[in-house]
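Design request, tokens follow.
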């Protein structure tokens, strides 16, 4: 099946006013700030007006909550990935939808080794910063310390940013590191390769619960066709993030994309369960209880399992264990305007705990974008 979507260009800004139209529309029964004089912080999981979250603060069950458009980093390689061994600056865009300034907003930056589900104790602290986010505005916050990606997995890591503010009171940060259920957290799990190259890495599938449980890995493969003329003035990092979101069912306006589900085809993707290993001892105090799973199961009650693609493996993990999963994405001929998106999800029943997104970008389009950027640079 082929669907048509679109992408709205949105450039970073130090402080920018945003429309309240999304909240007024009630889209998804959307979570919204209370009509009182207080701050109300959030980091978006999709390129939307407002949070796009349900009334209880969670992301709609089938949506990818791990491709935040509000986390940025530089420098990158030609494909927009961080480079192992280099000093990388990380930024996050924090929104305040409340009527009062968010004074003393504490913004924290973390990196994780590649992982499907995120468990707080497995994270690595980069830095933090105190800022004030004006009422009704967004603010780009730069981490005061650089991040140096490690050579393990070639520098491919997960980034998580969370924010908190004393003025929010009981509506503040409640579920640290859980981007699926807390608007104060942004997460970015994405890796890009060109279509002529393969990509291999090891990703952890941890047990985030305080009890043994069975998990599944499910795969959604999507072909996204994008018209090059529409995106030739955009940065590659903006393009691939939009492609990843659209492949995950996010609706984005203005630029059209054609989306074809290829989940029933193998396409040579290799996924192998390697070994079980223990998590860091610090993870123990951050494990989730049965309440989290039961609440998420209620939200997913009407969702069919095939909404998450096809199951490729299943395994049982004890408390404080993680499965190491080997992934290999092969080269694939794509033509000039096609992106291949593989989204591998860690599931507990119909509850999506996390995922990693792999995007193969067409070499011809990469070359075209490179020439266009070079031409613009010469004309300046």
């Amino acid at each position: 099946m082929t669907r048509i979507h679109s992408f709205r260009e949105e450039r970073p800004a130090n402080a920018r006013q945003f429309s309240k139209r999304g909240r007024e529309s009630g889209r998804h029964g959307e979570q919204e700030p209370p009509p009182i004089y207080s701050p109300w912080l959030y980091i978006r999981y999709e390129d939307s007006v407002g949070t796009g979250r349900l009334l209880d603060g969670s992301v709609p069950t089938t949506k990818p909550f791990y491709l935040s458009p509000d986390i940025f980093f530089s420098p990158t390689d030609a494909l927009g990935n961080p480079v192992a061994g280099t000093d990388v600056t990380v930024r996050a865009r924090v929104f305040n939808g409340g009527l009062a300034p968010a004074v003393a907003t504490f913004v924290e930056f973390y990196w994780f080794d590649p992982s499907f589900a995120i468990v707080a104790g497995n994270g690595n602290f980069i830095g933090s910063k105190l800022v004030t986010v004006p009422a009704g505005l967004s603010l780009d916050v730069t981490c005061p310390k650089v991040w140096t990606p490690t050579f393990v997995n070639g520098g491919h890591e997960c980034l998580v940013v969370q924010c908190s503010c004393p003025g929010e009171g009981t509506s503040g940060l409640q579920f640290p590191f859980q981007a699926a259920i807390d608007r104060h957290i942004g997460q970015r799990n994405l890796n890009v390769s060109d279509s002529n190259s393969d990509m291999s890495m090891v990703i952890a599938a941890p047990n985030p619960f305080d009890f043994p449980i069975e998990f599944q890995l499910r795969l959604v493969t999507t072909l996204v066709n994008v018209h090059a003329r529409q995106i030739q003035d955009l940065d590659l990092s903006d393009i691939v993030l939009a492609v990843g979101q659209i492949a995950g069912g996010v609706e984005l306006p203005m630029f059209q994309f054609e989306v074809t589900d290829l989940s029933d085809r193998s396409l040579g993707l290799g996924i192998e369960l390697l070994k079980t290993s223990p998590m860091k001892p610090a993870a123990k105090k951050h494990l989730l209880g049965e309440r989290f799973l039961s609440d998420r199961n209620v939200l997913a009650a009407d969702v069919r399992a095939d909404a998450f693609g096809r199951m490729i493996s299943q395994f049982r993990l004890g408390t404080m264990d993680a499965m190491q999963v080997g992934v290999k994405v092969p080269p694939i001929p794509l033509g000039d305007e096609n992106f291949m998106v593989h989204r591998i999800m860690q599931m507990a029943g119909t509850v999506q705990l996390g995922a990693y997104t792999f995007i193969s970008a067409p070499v011809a389009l990469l070359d075209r974008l490179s020439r266009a950027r070079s031409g613009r640079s010469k004309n300046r």
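Comment from the thread starter after seeing the answer: thanks! The CA atoms of residues 40 and 171 lie 8 Å apart.
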